[in-house]
Amino acid sequence: MAPVNIEQLDGIWVITLSRPEVRNAVDSPTAQALHRAFLAFDDDPLARVAVFHGAHGHFCAGWDLQFGARVASSGEASALGDLDFASDDPRAIGPMGPSRLRLRKPVIAAVSGAAVAGGMELALWCDLRVMEDDAYFGVYCRRFGVPLIDGGTVRLPRLIGMGHAMDLILTGRQVKADEALRLGLANRVVPSGQAREAAVALARQLAAFPQATMLADRESAYAQWDLPLGEALQQEWQRGRERIPDALQGAQRFAAGQGRHGRF
What we know:
By secondary structure, this protein is α/β, with parallel strands linked by helices. It has helices at 28-43, 65-74, 78-81, 118-125, 152-160, 162-171, 177-183, 195-208, 211-223, 229-241, 244-255; strands at 4-9, 12-17, 49-54, 107-111, 114-116, 128-132, 136-138, 175-176, 188-190.
């Protein structure tokens, strides 16, 4: 089985990481394959939502330290240091592959088993995280002096706040599913073995919505981070007003009886 596999389900792409011998840890060839897979998803006009899945009971154990040891022994220690990038490049590759991509469509992580170190950073890169009740997060790379260079020090504080983020970043401790849900690391917790199925079901729900409006709102939410309040509200309006015709069509559907009483 290839280390990265793609399954297409009527507009839903399931991108699966499969390196069971290292709990789906990522080496450079795998990072490149993941990067290509998510670019292909973003470029496919028929693709709407991706599910990022780890096979064989684990999401991802991070950067492959065995690979790193071989790199160090070969004298090619610059292998990761060479991955510099321009901040305005939305298609840049990261050490773990897709971690620097700024996609135009949502990605849902289906988290089982270990999602630690760089694997946790990949889960943080996704828009939503569906987590099995026996899965866990953790900055496990703290033990070996491996830095967070795939967005962990940026996305974790933005997601759960600085106090909680510093606890996890500095200690590297394990975060189980119940705490992850409480902190906001996980959006859903499901029984063991059901993350992929639940993530695909959630992806189908997102794919069924009017896409242009949903994607405009998603982009507005990401864009507002770097803006003062007034500018953030302005960019929200600029994106949203282009979707007003969609809103009026939706109002007509509501008036005709669709979606009453919160039905989806």
